[in-house]
Amino acid sequence: MKITKEQSLGNLIKKCREEKRLTLRDVEDKTDISNAYLSQLEGNKIKKPSPVILDKLSTLYQIQYSTLMKLAGYPVPEIEEQSPLYARIGETTKEEENALVEYLEFLRAKRNRSS
Length: 115
Prior knowledge:
63% of the residues lie in helices and 0% in strands. The protein is mostly helical and 115 residues long. Helix 2 (24-31) packs across helix 3 (35-42). It is elongated. The N and C termini lie far apart (37 Å). The relative contact order is 0.12.
């Protein structure tokens, strides 16, 4: 998922929930965050939820915790040097990272067999 600089925390969280086809009550069941609170968060009425809330949502939605922290206005240390891969594809979910690692291992094994 591409995250833009002008995107709000609430909009991102709502988009993630909808992409996973979850209702507010589904998220409540999985995170113990009330659906009323989630609704206010998605509606941008709550601007700075606690890091604990953000951690639960980042785990459920498989998006980087630092991204949510930054959108909520918390200070996040910058990556000292971004890799060329990051510059090409942007932020990735844990699921995407795992798939990329798996594919890279496949390519390396294939190369080693043909050497």
